[in-house]
């Protein structure tokens, strides 16, 4: 490992140690970090220190079930306005955030900015990606939960996709009273 790579590893290790985030050094110079979110509950992010650059890869969503062209177009349009990372797809069509930073630029402030960008773009785009690429699955899940009397609370962001078969009110939680009159 070069001097610049070793210095970058020290900066990253120190920053992660102070961050309060869950992380591990999977192998020398490769850090796996879990970023907690609100819409996407966690984003697993890999920081890899190479000979000349720090690379970042973060899984965002699997290959869209439907509307892949619309999802990819939305991602490409979004890339124009992003800092430090951009959306990419792998050979399976799964969606990632990727980026590269020269080792000389690896400072605590830049690590913070880099991981902040990953979290913002992953968490902020997650519902749109799901809505564009998984609407049918969301509708199916919504109907399945209703048919079983299960909560739809964690699908609330997608209520507009539910498309109920009639005008009956949609339950959002399990009843708390199990009496026959409830």
Primary descriptors:
disordered C terminus, 4 helices, 6-stranded antiparallel beta sheet, alpha+beta, 182 residues, 6 strands
Tally of DSSP helical segments: 4
Largest sheet: 6 strands, antiparallel
Point out poorly predicted stretches.
170-182
The SSE string, one letter per element, is HEEEEHEEHH
**Global outline:** elongated
The helicity comes to 25-40%
Overall average pLDDT: 89
Quote the beta fraction: 15-25%
Structural class: alpha+beta
Q: Compute the CA-based radius of gyration.
A: 21 Å
The strand order across the widest sheet is 1-2-3-4-6-5
The span between the termini is: 67 Å
Number of strands: 6
Describe this structure in words.
With 182 residues, this protein is of the alpha+beta class. The protein is built from four helices and six strands. Helix content is 38%, strand content 24%. The chain has helices at residues 3-19, 68-79, 108-133, 135-148, and strands spanning 22-27, 30-36, 42-49, 53-61, 85-89, 95-102.
Summarize the structure.
By secondary structure, this protein is of the alpha+beta class. The chain has helices at residues 3-19, 68-79, 108-133, 135-148, and strands spanning 22-27, 30-36, 42-49, 53-61, 85-89, 95-102.
In terms of topology, how is this protein built?
Elements: H1 3-19, E1 22-27, E2 30-36, E3 42-49, E4 53-61, H2 68-79, E5 85-89, E6 95-102, H3 108-133, H4 135-148
Antiparallel strand pairs: 1-2, 2-3, 3-4, 4-6, 5-6
């Amino acid at each position: 490992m070069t001097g610049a790579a070793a210095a970058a590893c020290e900066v990253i290790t120190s920053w992660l140690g102070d961050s309060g985030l869950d992380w591990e050094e999977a192998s020398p110079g490769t850090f796996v970090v879990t970023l907690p979110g609100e819409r996407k509950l966690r984003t697993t992010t890999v920081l890899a220190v190479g000979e000349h650059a720090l690379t970042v890869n973060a899984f965002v969503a699997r290959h869209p079930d439907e509307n892949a062209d619309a999802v990819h177009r939305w991602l490409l349009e979004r890339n124009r306005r992003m800092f430090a990372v951009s959306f990419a797809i792998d050979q399976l069509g799964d969606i990632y955030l990727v980026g590269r930073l020269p080792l000389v630029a690896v400072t605590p402030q830049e690590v913070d900015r880099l991981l902040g960008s990953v979290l913002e773009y992953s968490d902020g785009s997650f519902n749109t990606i799901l809505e564009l690429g998984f609407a049918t699955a969301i509708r199916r899940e919504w109907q399945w939960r209703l048919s079983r009397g299960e909560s739809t609370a964690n699908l609330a962001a997608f209520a507009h996709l539910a498309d109920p078969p009639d005008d009956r009110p949609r339950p959002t939680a399990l009843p708390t009273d199990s009496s026959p009159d409830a």
